[in-house]
Write a structure and sequence with these properties.
heme, 5 helices, mainly alpha, Cytochrome c domain-containing protein
C-alpha cells in the first residue's frame, strides 16, 4: 500500500528541518564578538575546533584572574558560566564541520 503525503506536510517538514539547521549554525550571544580576534589566521589563534573543556577553562581562568590578560579578563567577566559553555560548545563544534 502506498502512502501519499500532502505537499503542505512535506513543505512543513522541510521548513522545520531548515529552521533547526539555521539555529544550529547561528552563534550563541557573545560568540560572534570572539571572531574578531580568534578567527582562522588571526593573531590570537582560532577557537574553532578547540575542545569545549579547553575554552570553558580558559574563560573561567580569565574571569577569575588566574590567567593573566590585557583584555580577555574583562571580556570573560561579561559571560556567566552558562554563556561560556554555550560559546565554547559552538566553537568546538565549528571545527567538526
Amino acid at each position: 500500500m502506498s502512502r501519499r503525503y500532502s505537499p503542505f506536510l512535506l513543505a512543513l517538514a522541510l521548513a522545520c528541518g531548515t529552521a533547526a539547521r539555521a539555529a544550529e549554525l547561528r552563534p550563541p550571544p557573545g560568540a560572534s564578538s570572539c571572531t574578531g580576534c580568534h578567527a582562522q589566521g588571526a593573531a590570537m589563534g582560532a577557537l574553532e575546533g578547540r575542545s569545549e573543556a579547553e575554552i570553558v577553562a580558559a574563560l573561567a581562568a580569565f574571569r577569575s584572574g588566574e590567567r593573566p590578560a590585557t583584555i580577555m579578563n574583562r571580556i570573560a567577566r561579561g559571560f556567566d558560566a552558562d554563556e561560556s559553555r554555550a560559546i565554547a560548545a559552538w566553537f568546538a563544534a565549528r571545527g567538526s564541520h
